[in-house]
Amino acid sequence: MIKNIKCKMVLALSTILIFSLGCIKQNDDSKNNRSLLATMFGKTTQSTMKSVTKNVDLSNEPVGFRSIQVENEQNFDERVNVKQRIVVPSVKFSKFNNSSKGIVQNAIPPECAGSFVSSLQPSAFVTFLETHDVDCVDNFVWNYDQYSNSIYSQANMLAVVNRFGALAPFYNGRNDLKFLQLFRVFWAGFYLKYYYPSIPFNQNQISQTLITPMQIFANTVNFLDGTEIAGEILNSFFTTANNAGIGHAIYSYILSFLEITLNDPQRLTNSYWQSNTLTSVFNLISRYTHPSFPQFRASIDYVLIDKLKRFSLNTNFHTDSQVWIINNAIYDLGLIYSNLSTFQSAIVPILTDVLTTYPYISEPYLWAVKALTQNSDCVNLQIGQICLSQTKTAVKSAAFPNTYSFDDGTQVVHTPLTLNAIQPLYHALKQVESQFFRIVGIHAPVAGDPTDSISMYVYGSLKDYKVFHPFLYNLPTNNGGIYIEQDKAFYTYQRTSAESIYTLEELLRHEYAHYLVGRFIIPGMWSEVPAYANERLTWFDEGIAEFLAGGTPKEIHPRKVLVSQIQNDGSSRMNVSQVLTARYGDFKFYRYSGNFFHYLYTYKKDILRDLISTLRGSNISAFDSLVTQMSQDASLNISFQSYLDILILNIDKLADPLTIAPDLTNLSTNDPGIIQSIFRASLLGYQAKCTIAVFGINGRFSCRGSIAGTLRSSQDWATAWSELNLKINDLMSSLETNGANNLKSMNCKIGEIRFIKYSNLFYPSAIYSCEGPLPSRTPIPYVHPAQDQSDFRDTSFGVNSTCFTVTSPGSGTTCNSPLGTIGFPSTATYDEMYQYLNGQFNDLKSEVYTMRPPLYRRINCGLNSITTVNQTNGTKYLVATSTCNL
């Protein structure tokens, strides 16, 4: 098993650049780094840095390495385990050209592989490092695989330490002695050792042996040079000390670097790597305040406190590009405050000064409030009492002055945007939802799902997202949005085209698809059930969300923005196997997995159905088997690549979602009875039943019925689905021009397809549900359980339902519905009969739920008392009771 640690998202602690620590690789002088930056940013001037926040797992983890990202992280969403919310200040570069064209990467020589390097003896290993560039070294040092134990042998590590010790006195501020390559082995070696303790070198012995050479190196005249290449070497020095666990041994050099930076802040403006080094030092300080590092904690003194104070209160850093410096200094002061009580009396006045120096609810202000209120909601300061809860209330009022409640409170939007700006987004989500249910079939939530509502927090700008979001919800901002299933909420922001290639609508469509998948396909919470183990579902989660984001009322279209990115990839496309094993940390797979779903939707509907059904049934082994089969199917990959060729060839015919909301003040009718009459006058909707599904500012009607396909000799699900999908679209088209404009903004879905035997043939049948806009309506009170029983009895299989009020353990309604299959011949298996019974059960749940989704949002049903009844004529059937708790 190969595990590439480059893309591991555990970039511990206080400050990590978007390209991470030391990841822009170069040869042995700074000119190549400059040319790469110029290529990326289209200019030769220094790059700007932006304040963001990162999410890390544990506060004492070592620092990893991320390869250079062609993608802009603000284009993409993120999934976070709520149990591991440690949010820290971080920085990122300003947005660069998202196209991968023009980025030139040197070819990596074939010997730069673990298979070759692992065969070298220690002296030859050192020689190899000194005769190859950093690109080559990075190609093998970060992988954990069958070669790692040989590469990181005790003998190899000692040889590198000894060579470093021999060269350390001669450091001249350049990399002609290959210090970067030597440091890389320490950096990566200690990092891998943390996660894979079986790596054979003796961590304690190597780290202790490294102390003296590190101190000799730091005592050289050029140690604190302000050039670009010296900055990269300096960054490697501090990160090596961090990962090696010897931060205490270089404490005085941390102080020296902080002092020279305070005295000459221009070195940060002029150099990417000098700024990167400052983040590494902040990172080291924050990590080493953890109890795991008692020697460093014992070294912390008022000199360090004073330097952090000077960074915290330097208002020259209070700009969009450098506020991260202030934030990180405050963060480190906060960690020292909470971990070392000795310094609390010195730190409180500093943080108080921060509160009075910077504007109310600015980034530094909020980081200071968080630091001061770690142990209690309120603290009494010389300037008065400061409370976390009160500050959060003020921030929420500033960030989200408007709250719009849709679908009887099951969809709530918090935002500064106007209702007119939100309405198209609401209707866009309805399109995504209808197409989702067409491919899923079952329209009721998975058993026991708690996400019966969704809150959407839409910040007014990217800046507001970065400033307010981590303070309010302790979530990272190095993303385009984030869905937290456990919170029943997703968070994003209004953006400009310069900030993201995706619109707010596309992002909301994507996040809403995550919500639908969690509620209607996968039982259990994200990251908390076996299905999510080892990032098994990463490609599935993001792929189906990108796919569904292209949903319209009648189809799911390929999105031009995704196909354009694939076109820009040229020959460096991902194959199917790479798509299906994709992991978070590299965003390239988003566009491929999204289009792979569209490929399955177009040509392999059976596979798409099976993937969904195995997950809904928690049959993980069957899901894994399907994925393995696809990964190993060469013909499938050839077909997929040809499909991508066709998309690129027709790219000018593609578009991206842009929803226009209906004029809710000018709808033809507010009466679902009139809608029902129009349905029943149509060829396909003659049996429709319509109700009011939703009240409030966006009223909705719901109409449901059943559709059937033509007779056929086989139970071909894919063909049947295409036929019924076409029929439901025909129904929509026929109703669009009937004079009631409510129906022009209608969305429809179809249920599970069941095959009905007729003589020796079969015809497919499915329930359908259509819903659309009504004018704003005042909610009417429902009388329970009478309304529930009436609704259950108004379904295809619930005519004999009985509903009653339950008072224990909690108040609610339970509805029992007797179900029975048709008669089967004596040769029929139990599974055949159960499949039929389960189809009735699913249709019952789906019909009830789609009738009034907000009312039945907590529906939780089970089949009980399943019994086989044998008849005297030799046939048999199943009976059971569906019990639904509401």
Automatic annotation (TrEMBL):
Residues 1-25 form the signal peptide. It comes from the Bacteria. It is an enzyme of class 3 (hydrolase). It is found in: Secreted. InterPro entries: Peptidase_M9_N_dom, Peptidase_M9A/M9B. Coiled coil: none annotated. One of its GO terms (biological process) is proteolysis. The active site is at 511. Its cofactor is Zn(2+). Its main location: secreted. Pfam families: Peptidase_M9, Peptidase_M9_N. It catalyses: Digestion of native collagen in the triple helical region at Xaa-|-Gly bonds. With synthetic peptides, a preference is shown for Gly at P3 and P1', Pro and Ala at P2 and P2', and hydroxyproline, Ala or Arg at P3'. Its EC number is 3.4.24.3. Keywords: Hydrolase, Metal-binding, Metalloprotease, Protease, Secreted, Signal, Zinc, Zymogen. One of its GO terms (molecular function) is metalloendopeptidase activity. One of its GO terms (cellular component) is extracellular region. Residues 119-288 form the Peptidase M9 collagenase N-terminal domain. This is microbial collagenase. It comes from Leptospira santarosai.
